[in-house]
Amino acid sequence: MQLPRWWELGDPCAWTGQGRGTRRMSPATTGTFLLTVYTIFSKVHSDRNVYPSAGVLFVHVLEREYFKGEFPPYPKPGEISNDPITFNTNLMGYPDRPGWLRYIQRTPYSDGVLYGSPTAENVGKPTIIEITAYNRRTFETARHNLIINIMSAEDFPLPYQAEFFIKNMNVEEMLASEVLGDFLGAVKNVWQPERLNAINITSALDRGGRVPLPINDLKEGVYVMVGADVPFSSCLREVENPQNQLRCSQEMEPVITCDKKFRTQFYIDWCKISLVDKTKQVSTYQEVIRGEGILPDGGEYKPPSDSLKSRDYYTDFLITLAVPSAVALVLFLILAYIMCCRREGVEKRNMQTPDIQLVHHSAIQKSTKELRDMSKNREIAWPLSTLPVFHPVTGEIIPPLHTDNYDSTNMPLMQTQHNKILGHQRNVKRESSLVPKPRCVRITVEHL
Asked: What local confidence, expressed as pLDDT, does residue 392 receive?
């Protein structure tokens, strides 16, 4: 919409009609007129329709100047507003864009670009892209809609497609209409087709490329795919020669006769060129033979309806807890009966045990206790465990042979050893008494 000249110049007399004999407008009428103009501009800026063709490169530039009118001019009078503006694009109702559509904007002071190659599946279906502009100075936003109406191409897809890798270009530079037109003109001079279209443009970073160092004004590179309706020219076929393939394997530049037609503006890596002839491609579809490991086709997923009846889990809850609890209770009662009600008792055990065995048992207990006491204190009296407690035949208790003041340092540990020592001493005395004692004979020697 183009405004009158007097609106651009801001002539108050032209608007109020002073000096021309016209009627002056009231402030209310002025406000209504401004609101109407703003509504018209908002309506114009809100929706924009574009009509790309399927299989042909689509480029849409988001101009910053187009969105500056949405933000109030806060700078001082006389200053030019150059606010940093960034864009966010997404499919209406979704957080991201369609798979075929890409977006790039290098800096907040440059224009954004939407580009991609529409697919045949979206023909006839309007694609609404929400564009949100952010003013990084005032933190204000403005939202517009871009309606993409994809049209069907007449001879889509083009049967002969070639993809070039241009080293000295970035994707946003290549998307410019004049640069892309120059490249298509150079390709047309080499190929000589009747119809030539740019199919797709892809940044080298999207193909696994690395970000170049910020020296010598290096570029990241861009892949450009073009399609034509005639077979490839002999110049493009030179890349498939064995000599050029050998040079590419040795990381050397191949010899291409038509390279000089691109070298003036575009530096092409001929080792990465891709030539696709769709007329000779054989369908690689194979029928799937269902067997082990392949599930049958269940069709599309059908979610359950919202009118499902609520299920009562009270019975399941009782069964899940009651049955294990009842089994555990029965096992507990059986174990309690065995451990508590079936005990014979100590008295019954002692009655069925012989007295001699009980005496042995008590003696062992006393000996164990005395040995433990001895380990704590080495200076105690002679242990009673080393003395015979009862007679081995009659079972009568025998008192200890020594008194309390008896020196126990020479006492053997077992009484049997003591008896053997005493018996040995008596035998020695008896044998010594039987031996005759020598008699002393006095001999008198007289002097002769």
From this structure: 60
Amino acid 378: pLDDT: 63
Alpha-carbon gap, residue 389 to 361, rounded angstroms: 12
Round to whole Å and give the CA distance between 114 and 57: 11
What residues contact residue 302 under an 8 Å CB cut-off, 6+ apart?
A: none
Predicted pLDDT at 345: 72
In 3-state terms the chain splits into helix, strand, coil percentages (rounded to 5) of: 35, 15, 45
Judged by DSSP in three states, 39 sits in helix
Asked, as a colleague might, if the bond just before 157 is cis with ω within 30 of 0, I would say yes
- Inter-residue contact 142 to 148 (CB < 8 Å): no
CA atoms of 396 and 391, how far apart (whole Å): 5
Order of strands across the sheet that contains 160-166: 196-203, 222-228, 160-166, 274-277
Domain segments of the chain: what residues? 48-150, 160-277
Q: Is 166 helix (H, G, I), strand (E, B) or coil?
A: strand
Distances in whole angstroms, Cα of residue 178 to Cα of each of 185, 239, 310, 343: 10, 28, 65, 106
Using CA atoms, how far apart are residues 75 and 68, in angstroms rounded to an integer?
13
Kindly report each contact of residues 426-432 with a partner whose C-beta sits within 8 Å and lies 24 or more positions away, as own/partner. Answer: none
Residue segments in the chain with a per-residue pLDDT below the cut of 70: 1-46, 74-81, 155-156, 281-297, 378-448
Three-state SS for 132-144 is EEEECCCCCEEEE
- Residue 119 Cα distances to 94, 130, 284, 342, angstroms: 19, 20, 21, 86
Q: Tell me, what's the pLDDT at 333?
A: 94
Encode 394-419: b = buried (16+ Cβ within 10 Å), e = exposed.
Answer: eeeeeeeeeeeeeeeeebeeeeeebe
β-bridge pairing 141-148 and 222-228: unpaired
* C-alpha closest to that of 45 among 65, 72, 74, 31: 65
User: What confidence tens digit (pLDDT) does each residue in 50-85 have?
Assistant: 988 888 899 999 988 888 878 877 656 656 668 899
Q: Per the structure block, which two tokens stand in for 43? A: 């309506």
CATH superfamily of 48-150: Immunoglobulins (2.60.40.10)
